[in-house]
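For reference, the entry.
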Amino acid sequence: MQAFLVGLLFLFTLLVLIAMGILLFPLMLVGGIILWGIVILTFLILAIWLLGKIIIFIWDKFFKEKV
């Protein structure tokens, strides 16, 4: 009887964990999409900053008045 109750408790615990995983899946999905967006936005800001640095470097190198 004890083994039956342990097995039943295990199955019940497994079902609860599966239900929590199913309920949390949309939250994890949205979190992943938000994280993906943050990474893309970070790379976009980095690319714009790097482009500005390159333009300033070229401007200073070629168009600076020589004294």
Remarks:
- The first helix runs from residue 2 to 63.
- The helical segments are 2-63.
- The two ends are 97 Å apart (CA to CA).
- The chain has a mean pLDDT of 92.
